[in-house]
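Lecture 7 notes: from sequence to structure.

We start with a single chain of 373 residues. Read the sequence below before looking at the structure.
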Amino acid sequence: MERTVKNEGLILDGTKILYHRERIDAWLRGERIAPITMDIALTRACNYRCEYCYATLQENPRKRITKDIIFSFLDDAAEIGVKAISLVSDGESSFSPIYIDTILRGSENGLSMAMGTNGYLCNRDSLEQILPHMDYLRFNISAGESKRYAEIHGVPESYFYTVCQNIRDAVEIKQRNNLEVTIGLQMVLMPQYQDQIIPLAKLGKELNVDYLVIKHCSDDEKGSLGVQYSEYESLYEILKRAEMFSTDTYYVRAKWSKLKDGNKRRYTQCYGAPFMLQLSGSGLVAPCGMLFGENYKKYWIGNIVETSFKKIWQSDRYWDVMNEIASTNFDARVMCGTLCLQHNVNEFLWDLKKLKIELHDPIAPPPRHINFI
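Now the structure, written as tokens:
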């Protein structure tokens, strides 16, 4: 079978928000907008113990998300105008018994569906079911060698080989069925993992995936994970070497925008959350994953286990919180963690709002995964 150029129209660094002018225009008019993308988890549980896990810093009361609850959520999301759901957030969604049902229901509702996963439980049977209904499936893997994989991810070394086989199966299913789904790898890079950059670039090529993206590691405002942002610059040359493994069918890309920003922000208020909302695996709705922890309760909005998402979104509480983090009472430089999910969206909206940059229609054709901004 003839293969297409996989990296054509694939944006792995930056934001696609400009392709949603109608939502930006409504926001500028002061209207209450639905999120474009929602980053959610189905559980707080995980079968891995990754060294870099930000979710361990953001504990909140756990409630169980059942099939009925998530179906109601997905119905509400589609009704109010949410465009895309990614199963990522603060838990391993494949660890939930309802993750396949969730992907199928979301797709049935017309939502763009995606998942980021450690991949251990994504066996051939589950992949056969979910891949036809997804925009992308991303395997989170921060090492290209089994021993280092076990050390970084806190699992037995045998897990590395299971995950690699699951990735091979995903690629084979995609090619056999000529599916549009993008299958990629993501490395969360702490400076001490630099020895795995090249081995992982080689592994991605061997596994025949569409891409490998190498991203920063987020930390909280206290630096609890100990990320040494000043050391990223020393890795620039090896990251450029990794990108040279790219071909017409395999794209290696470092998230330069965030790696170079480090733990610094040039914006103070958060404007991105109404466009790109997060949901904890406990059912908690908050502006972002940085605010899931108990010490941020003042920003908690509601819980889908107790109240329908549509009612939460329509509530004054929802918009009071969104207005609070967009006000001068909030300073994103010191009051939340670094390099958040909304970072690039925030930069764009900050420039639009504060610097009065001209809003224009994109020149380039619409990229892939356009609803994941």
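Confidence is low (pLDDT under 50) at residues 1-5. Keep this in mind for problem set 3.
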